[in-house]
Design goal:
The chain is of the alpha/beta class. The chain is 42% helix and 14% strand. The chain has helices at residues 14-26, 36-56, 69-83, 99-112, 129-135, 158-168, 238-253, 255-274, 301-310, 331-336, 339-343, 356-374; strands at 2-3, 63-66, 90-94, 115-119, 140-144, 172-176, 193-197, 208-212, 279-281, 291-296, 313-314, 345-349.
Length: 375
């Protein structure tokens, strides 16, 4: 099996799995319990929270553990919208965000009367500072822009955009960093809210966090026992929370090694595909090295992906059509406005475990499939 769908999820690091198993065996108490074992669990979790806070240069009490990026995005957008409604009901986001951002914005628009401005990407799939400048208003309360696009790997200049917003408006800035964290280097100094996910960085599924700036108000979307400083009630999933901190530490320590390895894989595949007839690469060459999106002109991506799957190679095909099936709505279409390219889009995504031999095998099998279909 060759797994090239790592933007969807990654294989768990064995060190995470081993530590997780040991935690569950030894520390099984509720972190909210007041007895000695409960206090031990709580202390371990708070040490993990502090470790994450130090990495992001935030206060320990501003790390909110969640079930993953989808919940973090929902809490960021809905939490801000409900807390700052008196300041304005205008939110800025983009047409190429993850569905957990886009659909949350649509819910805020349709049910609660918020006005949403959707910024379009440029020809490289990037959101420009000029687009943000033109959309900002006095009543804008939140700007939500992803760090790295999950379909084509384009990188947004989060530092420059967030710095401008903070210097020229009262709007809060949210970044969905699920595809960016430890894949590319970004500076989140001016971001008020940061979404992270464990299973994108060799950690556990169902684990993530929303990191906020001190003083940012959020209305909780889960009410109950007042857990996570009142922002997210529910019995703490302490073991996954502790492992999120370990995943962050390991990835921080190994960033340079992993990045260099994946960059070599990216460059090999990118250069190989660029030489092939009737293949268009949809990812910018200077995008995230972890993602290469391309289309085979005249061939549906799903057909190619299915043929690859039959050969034991797993890739991803973006959702190509809208609910009414009238036109493609994926990121490739938003960037190139070409239905043929959009319906033919295939995403290959790497991990630290991916080998060059696997990439070479993918290239060989891909060309064999294309030749067979043409024949």
């Amino acid at each position: 099996m060759i797994f090239l769908d790592n933007a969807s999820t990654t294989k768990i690091d064995a060190r995470i799995l081993d530590s997780y198993s040991e935690l569950l065996k030894k520390y099984f108490a509720n972190a909210a319990s007041t007895h000695s074992l409960g206090n031990e669990v709580k202390e371990l979790q708070e040490q993990a929270r502090a470790q994450i806070a130090r990495y992001f240069k935030r206060d320990k009490n501003d790390v909110i553990f969640t079930s993953g990026a989808t919940e973090s995005n929902n809490l960021a957008l809905k939490g801000v919208a409900m807390s700052y409604a008196r300041s304005g009901k205008h939110i800025i986001t983009t047409t190429i965000e993850h569905s957990s951002v886009k659909e949350t914005c649509e819910q805020l628009r349709s049910l609660f009367g918020y006005e949403i401005t959707y910024l379009e990407p440029d020809e490289n799939g990037v959101i420009s500072l000029e687009a943000v400048k033109s959309a900002l208003r006095p009543e804008t309360i939140l700007v939500s822009i992803m760090g790295v696009n999950n379909e084509i790997g384009s990188i947004n200049d989060i530092y420059t955009i967030s710095k401008y917003i903070k210097e020229h408006s009262k709007a809060l800035v949210h970044v969905d960093a699920a595809q960016a964290l430890f894949k590319v280097q970004q500076d989140y100094s001016y971001c008020d809210l940061i979404t992270v996910s464990a299973h994108k960085i060799y950690g556990l599924k169902g684990s993530g966090a929303l990191i906020k700036n001190k003083g940012v108000k959020l209305t909780p979307i889960l009410s109950g026992g007042g857990h996570e400083f009142g922002y997210r009630s529910g019995t703490s999933n302490y073991a996954t929370n502790i492992m999120l901190a370990k995943s962050i530490r390991l990835n921080a320590e190994e960033y340079e090694t992993n990045h260099k390895h994946v960059q070599e894989l990216h460059d090999y595949l990118y250069d190989y595909l660029a030489k092939q007839d009737k293949i268009q690469i949809n990812s910018p060459k200077d995008g995230s090295p972890y993602i290469v999106n391309f289309s085979i002109k005249g061939r549906p991506g799903a057909t190619i992906a299915q043929a690859l799957d039959q050969q034991g190679i797993m890739v991803s095909v973006a959702s190509a059509c809208s609910s009414n099936k009238s036109k493609p709505t994926n990121v490739v279409y938003k960037v190139f406005h070409d239905e043929d390219l959009a319906s033919g889009a295939i995403r290959v995504s790497f991990a630290k475990y991916t080998t060059l031999d696997e990439v070479k095998t993918f290239c060989t099998v891909l060309m064999s499939i294309i030749q067979e279909l043409r024949g």
